[in-house]
Amino acid sequence: MEQTSASSDVFLRLSSVSKRYGDYQAVNQVSLGIPRAKIYGLLGPNGAGKTSIIRMITTITAPDEGQIYFDGQPLEQQHVFRMGYMPEERGLYKKMKVGEQIVYLLRLKGLSQAEAKAKANEWLEKFELLEWKHHKTQDLSKGMQQKVQFIATVAHEPTLLILDEPFSGLDPVNTQIIEAEIRRLQANGTTIIFSTHRMEQVEELCHYIALINKGELMVEDELAAVRRRFQQNIYHIKFEGDPAHIRHIPHTELLSLQEGSAQIRLLPPTHAREVMQYLAQSPLEIHTFSIHVPRLNDIFIELVQSTQNVSQPQA
To answer: Nearest to residue 168, comparing CAs of 196, 144, 192, 133?
Structure first.
């Protein structure tokens, strides 16, 4: 397990938090530091403990051990009014009118009737749904319902926003609309926890990530730092000329060679500078020489599989 403090300015901190359900250890001594006004990816395979962590943050359940701190204070029920939580399993009332539903949910967050109505109208107009205000939720398309759920989650201007698979079921246009709003909220100071299985969305949106597996924290850091940590000294080369010169680069392993492109691994103690010098002296025309940045999906699979291999008994 690898733990790294995400930032000195931490808005939400979990300190050695554990949660059991009967004999099942859902979360085991997890410590997280979620930076203020950043987008923080909470990742892990199904059953990893992500939902249990979110339920403790939102005070739906309490930790069996450990402590959660919200903006420097021990987490209390009152802090829920400063949160917005959009669960993967959406919770709209199908037969309730859209406007009334948003107002009702905003009232539960402490807004007055007048404030809730004003916010509902403002956000419905922003998402081009104002004309659907008096329609029942069941009359809306799935994408429109998703936008209504998002409005109900953010319209009270939470300081902590928790989004569990927010793009599930959305078409590309609506995905772009929600993504732009998430970026705007973060830029205006909202701390955002983003839980998803879609690694490409994490790479686009998140500043920090934490990977949970089998209830334990495997890695937590800035996304760029995690990628650097899992680099394997692999480089891409695009070139013109005789590929034999690529095959003879000293102290490297040739991983792939195609027309005009190659992938090599530098063997210790070879430095990239030495390879660049070799290529510069060769008759090849080099277009690019770049380090391979591992995709988050590959890192995710590698970490999860490494845990599975360790836990399996030897034959």
So the answer is: 196
R_g over Cα of the chain: 24
238 bridge partner residues = 261, 288
Residues 109-114 have a mean pLDDT of: 95
> For the stretch 46-61, what's the b/e string if a residue is b when 16 or more beta carbons lie within 10 angstroms of its beta carbon?
eebbbbbbbbbbbbee
The pLDDT of residue 312 is above 80: no
Q: Is residue 135 part of a domain?
A: yes
How many domains is the chain partitioned into structurally? 2
Say if 303 falls within a structural domain. no
Answer yes or no: is 30 within a domain: yes
- Domain extent, residue 236, equals 232-291
Question: So what's the pLDDT on residue 315?
Answer: 39
Question: C-alpha distances in angstroms, 10 versus 35, 70, 101, 121, 287?
Answer: 4, 9, 34, 34, 43
Same domain assignment for residues 174 and 155 = yes
- The bridge status of strand 39-43 relative to strand 252-258 is unpaired
Query: Structure tokens of 176?
Result: 């772009």
- pLDDT recorded at residue 239: 96
Instruction: Report pTM.
Output: 0.82
The helix or strand, by DSSP H or E, that contains position 72, with its residue range, turns out to be none
The tokens describing 302, both together, are: 């590698």
pLDDT tens digit sequence for 251-264 = 999 999 998 999 99
d(CA 291, CA 293): 6
Amino acid, single-letter form, for residue 245: H
| pLDDT at residue 136, as a whole number | 95
In this structure, the chain runs to a length of 315
The SS3 assignment for 288 reads: strand
- DSSP secondary structure letter of residue 61: S
**Angle ∠(92,108,96) on CA atoms, nearest 5:** 30
